[in-house]
Amino acid sequence: MKSFQHSKGEKRSAMSIEPSTSSKCIINTSKGRIDVELWARELPNTTKLFLQSCQGQKLQRFDNVRPNGTVTIVGGSPDEKLESEHHSRIRSCRRGSVGYDRNINRWFLASRECSIEDDSWILIGKIVGDSNYILRRIVDESQLDDHGKFVYPPIVTKTEVTVPYFDLDLGSLPQAGPSPPEEEKRRLLKRGGAKVKLRYEEEEEEEDEDDEEQEAVPLKKIKPPPGVKDKDEIDSSTRMQASVEEEEQVEEMSLREKETLDLLSQFQQRQKGRGNILNRGQ
């Protein structure tokens, strides 16, 4: 099998002739955020499927690191093998390249420069900015088994399409619906809820009827034991006693007022008599 190796000068030339990207997305993982830019205009079929997978939150986790340094992703793979799609100005797989491997039907991220063995790879974009260091750190610091699989795989927590380029239609992606047992369970729960509601309403009606019957029955007055006065009698006698005391206070005040008026009248008469005596002396 022929291997396509490139010198450093050829790689710089390949980078300089690469077209500008036209779409952007973000892959948020448990190990950090990875910003991706895509050549949606040049590779519309493959990039649209990748963007739909991101929009539909289909990417699940990083799976393994292959000997060539590419990190494969579980989830979001097409149902059928994609047709080969290439562009003349996108020719080399370098650090940060994003693509699709038709041989294993997986999306991948390149953690370092690697050679393209055949035309089974479709390069659709690149990782930009500091996200390259995040991917490199994930590869260097993660524990791998003998087959290159992550022992504790980084989880894709969320994917965001910031510049879609396409009018994304999620209807073309398989949507997981509720299984028949779940639907049956929901129907049973609804029926049970209706029965409970009906029974609750019936119990409320019975309680209302019982309350009405209780209100219709007159309350019987309980007689106090011998030697103990009834509360109503005590209240009545207390009111009568208070009324008598009030009348006595009024009478007492009237007598005091009368005595005061008599004393005042006597005083005025004395003063008048003294005035007459003084006038005679003059």
TrEMBL record:
<dbReference type="InterPro" id="IPR002130">
    <property type="entry name" value="Cyclophilin-type_PPIase_dom"/>
</dbReference>
<dbReference type="Pfam" id="PF00160">
    <property type="entry name" value="Pro_isomerase"/>
</dbReference>
<protein>
    <recommendedName>
        <fullName>PPIase cyclophilin-type domain-containing protein</fullName>
    </recommendedName>
</protein>
<dbReference type="InterPro" id="IPR029000">
    <property type="entry name" value="Cyclophilin-like_dom_sf"/>
</dbReference>
<dbReference type="GO" id="GO:0003755">
    <property type="term" value="F:peptidyl-prolyl cis-trans isomerase activity"/>
</dbReference>
<feature type="domain" description="PPIase cyclophilin-type">
    <location>
        <begin position="27"/>
        <end position="159"/>
    </location>
</feature>
<feature type="region of interest" description="Disordered">
    <location>
        <begin position="171"/>
        <end position="190"/>
    </location>
</feature>
<feature type="compositionally biased region" description="Acidic residues">
    <location>
        <begin position="201"/>
        <end position="215"/>
    </location>
</feature>
<feature type="region of interest" description="Disordered">
    <location>
        <begin position="199"/>
        <end position="257"/>
    </location>
</feature>
